[in-house]
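subagent[fold] <- orchestrator: predict structure for attached chain, return C-alpha cells only, no commentary.
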Amino acid sequence: MAARDRNILLGFMVLLAGVSPGALGQRVNYPGPVCAVKGSKVTLPCTFSPLKSVQDEDGREVLIEIQRVVWCQNHEICQGSTPSVYDSESERNNPRYRYLGDKEGNCSLQISGLQEEDNATLRFRVETNPSRGSFTDRRGVRITVRDGIPMQIKNSSESDGAASLLCTARCTFHQLEVTWSRDGRALPQSGPALIALTAKDSGNYTCALKNDARTKSLPFRLHVEAADKDGRDLLPIIVPVVCGVLLAVFLLLFFIIRRCLTTRRAAAGAVEEEQQPKDVSRQRPDDVHFLPPAEDEVSYAAVQFQSRDVRPPVGSAVEDASYASVQFRPKNQSRAAEEDATIYSSVAGRR
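subagent[fold] -> orchestrator:
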C-alpha cells in the first residue's frame, strides 16, 4: 500500500512539472532570446525529441502517438485550457503566429507584425497517447519587442575601389522597409544594404525604417577612393602582347641563325673548290709537263712540238721542240716596256 501511494505522489509531482514518469530526458531545443523591432517578423527555429514508447501500469511497452502540439505565452506547463498562441487542435489560432513544424520533431514558429503584447516567454508542449509521453519544456524562449530604436550604418566591405553599407539595429527588423538618403537627398534603394558604391557615391549617408522618423540613424561619412586600374585593366592585354612579341623575336632569331649557317656552309664549299689545283698544262704521250709561271712574271708561253718524219738512229737523242716563244712580264714596269720584253728564240734540233 505504501508503494502504491508513493507512485501516486510521484505521478502527481511529475504532472505538475509537465512531464510524465516515462518522459525523463525529453527535451525542446529553443533558440536564444530574441529582440525584434515592432512591426517586424521573426522566426523561432525549434526542435523536440519525443519518446517512441512508454510502459503502462502492467509494465507492457506501449508506442506513443503525438496527438497535440501547443505554443503558449507566460505559462509554465501550457496544460489543459491554458491560453495559447498556437494549438494544433484549434481552428481559431492567431493569424500572426504560423506553425512551421510538425508532430515528429520540428516545432519552429514564425511571428509576423510584432506588437508590444508579444513581449513574453513562449513555451512548447507535446501531448501524447498514452498521456505518460506528454511533456512541456519550461525553459521557453524570451521575446522582446522594441519600438523607435535608432538604426546604425556599418561599412560592411570595401575592395577594388568599391564599398557597401549596411543598415542595422540592436534588434532584428526583418521584413521592414528601409529608406536611405545621401547628403540630405532620398535614394531609391529600400533594402537594408547598399552595395557597389564607388568614388562618385562618396557622401554622408543616413538610413531609417519607413514611416518612422524616430529610427533615423546618425550620418555616416563614406569616402571611396578611385581604384588604380591602369595596371590591372591593362594586364589582360599586356600579357598576350608580350608573349606574342617574344614568340616573334624567337622565330626571327631562328631564321637568322639558320640563314647564317646555310651561307657559311655555301662559302666554305666555294673556298674548298677554289683551293683545288687546276691542270692548265697539256700532256703528251711522253708525259712532258709544263707548270704555269707566276702571273706577274710570265705573260704567256707557247711551245710547239713537231715530230720528225725520219726516225733517228738508235742511240741518238733528238730534240723534238721546233720552236718556243715565251713572253716575260717583269714587275713594276709600264705597259710599253712590257711589249719590248718579248724574246723570241728558236731551237732546231739536228741529228
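orchestrator: received. Logging for downstream: The two ends are 183 Å apart (CA to CA). The longest helix spans residues 229-274.
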